[in-house]
UniProtKB/TrEMBL annotation:
<keyword id="KW-0464">Manganese</keyword>
<feature type="binding site">
    <location>
        <position position="296"/>
    </location>
    <ligand>
        <name>Mn(2+)</name>
    </ligand>
</feature>
<dbReference type="InterPro" id="IPR036237">
    <property type="entry name" value="Xyl_isomerase-like_sf"/>
</dbReference>
<keyword id="KW-0963">Cytoplasm</keyword>
<dbReference type="GO" id="GO:0008740">
    <property type="term" value="F:L-rhamnose isomerase activity"/>
</dbReference>
<dbReference type="InterPro" id="IPR009308">
    <property type="entry name" value="Rhamnose_isomerase"/>
</dbReference>
<keyword id="KW-0413">Isomerase</keyword>
<feature type="binding site">
    <location>
        <position position="294"/>
    </location>
    <ligand>
        <name>Mn(2+)</name>
    </ligand>
</feature>
<comment type="similarity">
    <text>Belongs to the rhamnose isomerase family.</text>
</comment>
<comment type="function">
    <text>Catalyzes the interconversion of L-rhamnose and L-rhamnulose.</text>
</comment>
<dbReference type="InterPro" id="IPR050337">
    <property type="entry name" value="L-rhamnose_isomerase"/>
</dbReference>
<keyword id="KW-0479">Metal-binding</keyword>
<protein>
    <recommendedName>
        <fullName>L-rhamnose isomerase</fullName>
        <ecNumber>5.3.1.14</ecNumber>
    </recommendedName>
</protein>
<comment type="pathway">
    <text>Carbohydrate degradation; L-rhamnose degradation; glycerone phosphate from L-rhamnose: step 1/3.</text>
</comment>
<dbReference type="Pfam" id="PF06134">
    <property type="entry name" value="RhaA"/>
</dbReference>
<keyword id="KW-0684">Rhamnose metabolism</keyword>
<feature type="binding site">
    <location>
        <position position="262"/>
    </location>
    <ligand>
        <name>Mn(2+)</name>
    </ligand>
</feature>
Length: 418
């Protein structure tokens, strides 16, 4: 390893040791954390099942940066490139529309065999897989309702799709020897103020109960449900609101998914984690960055990202939290977006691990808020960057912005040739 990186690391290590922090131990723990990279950043949420279908469901990708993946092989190639620039061993999060098949089938006909290409690849790469039913970008979602649609035939279609998704997830879990987290997000809602808020929620509850009727071993599949405040076209009412899914997850023993972009603009998910984990066993995070709305910007090292990481570390909640990413920026290099967002998420966790948590808690309990503030502020300029560089180098991944040259080379040679 480069001696400058090593020397800086040793100096940083000593400084943190002065606060009783074992940096080597922190790095060991960091290496165990898996981040779930969302495949949909790679192709602007298009998928492969219905080539010409426009993105729907009240979400939007802006930008037309060249080179996005157009086939499962291209997407895997891009993911491999991104993963080679990110320290650690992680997971890939698939949506149902990313099936790897030449068959012309509908969402309710999907089977594990349609994802075997992904399973084989994940095995070869030592990755885990997560999954999502795709309840949007489909003719049967065009009226803005899926699992809560008033028409029982449409509801049944989506129930069949969600059941099929759980079977696929179970297969992933069995094949890869680690649970697949299956996240259920449905866009159902009204643009304008509804008269009846209750009935769609009753229908959603019934549909979900039917979807989850069959027990699946949690060694293979973990169900999560994701709420949302509003979407494009569902500004006034979303059936699956936060309260709806919090109640559902609590009463049904499901994991709750918190997406950072799914609340009021000043409402932070970091402040919800400790409350929710008192009542639900497991959490799924969709780490994202809302800019004025659920815009799904690439995750940066902002206050909220740091606060999320601190909550997980300070509360020792990492073992009950699945960390997924959810952003889609079509205006920059697709691979760079993954690398920036994922590296930042890991880096934020590292920063949180380099805090003297026990000491800070003690100061707080003693009512010494002056020292609490002084210390937390001073810690912000401690040399976590030197520890991060060492971690990247020791994991065989590029240090600092070195990764960008590799993305640029790949862009010239591979992406522009597509
Ligand atoms: C594509 C994802 O499933 C989607 O982003 C969902 O998780 C969401 O956050 C919708 O706003
Ligand atoms: Mn999300």
């Amino acid at each position: 390893m480069d001696t400058k990186i090593l020397n800086s690391y040793n100096i940083a290590k000593e400084m943190y040791a002065g606060h009783g922090i074992d940096v080597d131990e922190a790095l060991k723990k960091l290496a165990e954390i898996k981040i779930s990279l969302h495949c949909w950043q790679g192709d602007d949420v298009r998928g492969f099942l219905f080539k010409d279908k426009e993105l729907s469901g009240g979400i939007a990708v802006t930008g037309c940066y060249p080179g996005r993946a157009g086939t499962p092989d291209e997407l895997r190639q891009d993911l491999e490139k991104a993963l080679s620039l990110i320290p650690g061993k992680h997971k890939v999060n698939l949506h149902a529309i990313y099936a790897d098949t030449d068959e012309s089938i509908d969402l309710d006909e999907l089977e594990p065999k349609h994802f075997q290409g992904w399973v084989d690849w994940a095995k070869e790469q030592g990755l885990g897989l997560d999954f999502n039913p795709t309840c949007f970008s489909h003719p049967k979602a065009e009226e803005g309702f899926t699992l809560s649609h008033p028409d029982p035939d449409i509801r049944d279609f989506w129930i069949r799709h969600c059941k099929a998704s759980r079977n696929i997830a179970e297969h992933f879990g069995k094949e890869l020897g680690q649970p697949c987290v299956t996240n259920f997000w449905v866009p159902d809602g009204y643009k304008d103020i509804p008269v009846d808020r209750l009935s769609p929620r009753k229908r959603l509850k019934e549909s979900l109960d039917e979807v989850f009727r069959e027990e699946i071993d949690t060694r293979y599949n973990i169900d999560a449900v994701e709420s949302k405040l509003f979407g494009i076209g569902s500004e006034s009412y979303v059936v699956g609101s936060h309260e709806f899914y919090m109640g559902y997850a609590m009463s049904r023993g499901k994991a709750l998914c918190l997406d950072a972009g799914h609340f009021h603009p000043t409402e932070m998910i970091s402040n919800k984690i400790s409350s929710i984990l008192m009542y639900v066993d497991q959490l799924l995070l969709h780490v994202s960055r809302p800019v004025r709305w659920d815009s799904d910007h690439v995750v940066i090292m902002d206050d909220e990202l740091l606060e999320i990481a601190r909550e997980l570390v300070r509360g020792d909640l990492l073992s009950r939290t699945h960390i997924g990413l959810d952003f889609f920026d079509g205006s920059i290099n697709h691979i760079a977006a993954w690398v920036i967002g994922t590296r930042n998420t890991i880096k934020a966790l590292l920063r949180a691990m380099l805090e003297p948590v026990a000491k800070l808690k003690e100061l707080e309990l003693d009512g010494d808020f002056t020292s609490r503030l002084a210390l937390t502020e001073e810690l912000k300029s401690y040399p976590f960057g030197a520890v991060w560089d060492y971690y990247c180098a020791s994991q065989g991944t590029p240090v600092r912005e070195e990764w960008l040259a590799e993305v640029k080379r790949y862009e010239q040679e591979i992406l522009y040739a597509r």
